[in-house]
Amino acid sequence: MANKTIDMSKIRQILRFFTQGKSKIFISKQTGASRNTVKRYIRKFLQEKLTYEAISELSDAELEVLFGSSQPVDLGERYDELQRLLPDFEKRFKQRGVTILMLFSKYRELCPNGYGHTQQG
Question: What is 18-46 written as a DSSP string?
């Protein structure tokens, strides 16, 4: 799966093998991580000018900050607008006689360029 985060212990293992001079192919086979994943973590390790000892002392949370996704994904204005409307729609949906179709129609009225139905062929 693309861009799936891996366990922090696996990152430590990748970096331990790297500091021991093991090849990326060896590391990939031993850890089960793809070669591109191994390369990405090694590149980040070298960019940050870290040592394995420093990595060993970090908590999983601190390691996640260092090696987690580099930038949050921007989902765009449509997503932000939908997120703003959802709490109100959730309250309305609990009311008797309110349907998802009614709420969707209201959403499309408020946000004409918002999300729509998928095209079925």
Answer: HHTT--HHHHHHHH---HHHHHHHHHHHH
Residue 121 belongs to some domain of the structure: no
pTM above 0.90, yes or no: no
- How many angstroms separate the Cα of 26 from the Cα of each of 8, 14, 33? 19, 10, 10
In terms of residue numbers, what domain contains 18?
A: 8-67
**Domain presence at residue 38:** yes
Amino acid code (one letter) for 91: K
The model's pLDDT over 3-56, given as tens digits with 9 standing for 90+, comes to 555 788 889 999 999 999 999 999 999 999 999 989 999 998 999 888 889 888
Task: Assess contact for 37 and 6: CB atoms under 8 A.
Answer: yes
Overall domain count for the chain = 2
Cα 45 from Cα 82, distance rounded (Å): 38
